[in-house]
Design goal:
Largest sheet: 4 strands, parallel
Oligomer: single chain
Order of helices and strands: EHEEEHEHHHHEHEEEEEEHEHH
Helix content: 25-40%
Structural class: alpha/beta
Number of strands: 13
Distance between the termini: 43 Å
Shape: globular
Strand order of the largest sheet: 1-2-5-6
Number of helices: 10
C-alpha cells in the first residue's frame, strides 16, 4: 500500500521493474556492501531510477543508508548530475602552447554547457537534492518528528513501539519505516512488520549474471579478432527494457578498444570466447551509468 522498497541497486535495475511490469521503486536501501567484488558491479546504482521518478513521475527517489555511504553517494551523484567544479575542468591542459589561436578560441565553454543542463525543467532545478532524498539511519528520534510532511520516514535501532510513537505522522496513507538490525532489516508499515530482508541480499547477484546482450555463440570457441572491425555489445538507451545500453568494441590490428562498456560486458566476452586480454583500452564518452557500468568489470578481469 506504500509502494515497493528495493534493497540494493545493480546497474540497469530499472529494467527489472519494467520487464516485470512493476512500479519502479521510489525507495532504495543501500546495503553495507555497496560493491559486488566477484562480478565487479556497483550495487548502489540509483541514477536511472532517479531520472525516471523525477522526469516521468515528478517525484524524488529516497535512498536510505548509513550517513557515510550516503555522503559518498551524494558526491558521486553531484558529479553525475551537475558536473565537476570549475577548478576541476582542466580544460586548458588539453591544448598545446603551440595550438592555433583560432582553435583555442573556439574551444567549448564547459561551464556554460554544464549550466545549460542544470537549468530547471518544469520549474524544478536539476540537482542531487531535487532528484534524491538521502535519508541516513538515525539512532534516535528527534523532537518535532511526530508530524512529518513526507510520505516516508526512515529510522534505525528503534523498537516498533518507539517507531510508532516517534514516526507516525498525520497522513491518510500512514507511514513506513526501515529498521537496521545489523544482519537484516525489518520493514514496518503502519506499525506492522511486513518484511525482514537479510543484508547480504542487497549486494547479491545471480551466478552467472543476467545479461541483456545477445549471445553470439554457444560455448567459448576461439575468437579471431579482425584487423579492423566492430563488435556491438548494446545499441539501446537506459530505458529500453529488453536491450543492453549502447557500447561496442572497436578492433584494430587484433586489439580491442572497449567503448562505453555495458553492465556485465566481461561476462559477455567470456560467453563468446573473447579473451579479456585482447581488450587493451577503455574509452568512456561520459560517466553516466548507462555508459560506464561495465568499466570496473573490465579493470578487474
Amino acid at each position: 500500500r506504500h509502494g515497493p522498497i528495493q534493497f540494493g541497486a545493480p546497474p540497469e535495475t530499472i529494467k527489472d521493474a519494467m520487464q516485470l511490469g512493476a512500479e519502479v521503486p521510489r525507495i532504495f536501501v543501500v546495503g553495507k556492501e555497496r560493491f559486488n567484488l566477484r562480478f565487479g558491479t556497483n550495487m548502489a546504482d540509483f541514477e536511472f531510477p532517479g531520472f525516471y521518478n523525477f522526469f516521468l513521475k515528478g517525484s524524488q527517489t529516497t535512498v536510505v543508508g548509513s550517513a557515510e555511504a550516503l555522503e559518498e553517494i551524494r558526491q558521486v551523484m553531484h558529479e553525475t548530475l551537475e558536473g565537476p567544479a570549475p577548478d576541476q575542468y582542466f580544460q586548458d591542459d588539453e591544448y598545446s602552447p603551440f595550438c592555433d589561436p583560432a582553435i583555442y578560441a573556439a574551444r567549448p565553454d564547459l561551464h556554460k554547457e554544464i549550466c545549460f543542463f542544470k537549468e530547471p525543467r518544469n520549474g524544478r532545478r536539476i540537482a542531487v537534492e531535487t532528484l534524491f532524498a538521502l535519508e541516513p539511519f538515525q539512532e534516535r528520534p528527534e523532537e518535532g518528528d511526530k508530524v512529518i510532511p513526507l510520505r516516508h520516514k526512515i529510522a534505525c535501532g528503534l523498537e516498533p513501539e518507539a517507531l510508532a510513537a516517534a514516526f507516525k505522522f498525520e497522513e491518510t496513507k500512514g507511514w513506513v519505516a526501515i529498521v537496521d538490525r545489523g544482519d537484516w532489516y525489518d520493514v514496518l508499515a503502519d506499525g506492522e512488520v511486513v518484511a525482514s530482508v537479510p543484508d547480504w541480499l542487497a549486494s547479491a547477484m545471480p551466478d552467472p549474471p543476467y545479461v541483456l546482450m545477445p549471445t553470439v555463440s554457444v560455448g567459448p570457441p576461439a575468437f579471431e579478432a579482425p584487423e579492423f572491425g566492430i563488435t556491438v555489445l548494446g545499441a539501446a538507451d537506459g530505458f529500453a527494457k529488453s536491450e543492453a545500453t549502447a557500447g561496442f568494441i572497436l578492433w584494430m590490428r587484433g586489439r580491442g578498444v572497449l567503448v562505453d562498456p555495458p553492465a556485465h560486458s566481461a561476462h559477455f566476452l567470456r560467453l563468446n570466447g573473447i579473451s579479456s586480454r585482447r581488450i587493451t583500452h577503455v574509452i568512456l564518452t561520459h560517466t553516466h551509468s548507462d555508459h560506464d557500468a561495465g568499466t570496473f568489470q573490465k579493470i578487474l578481469t
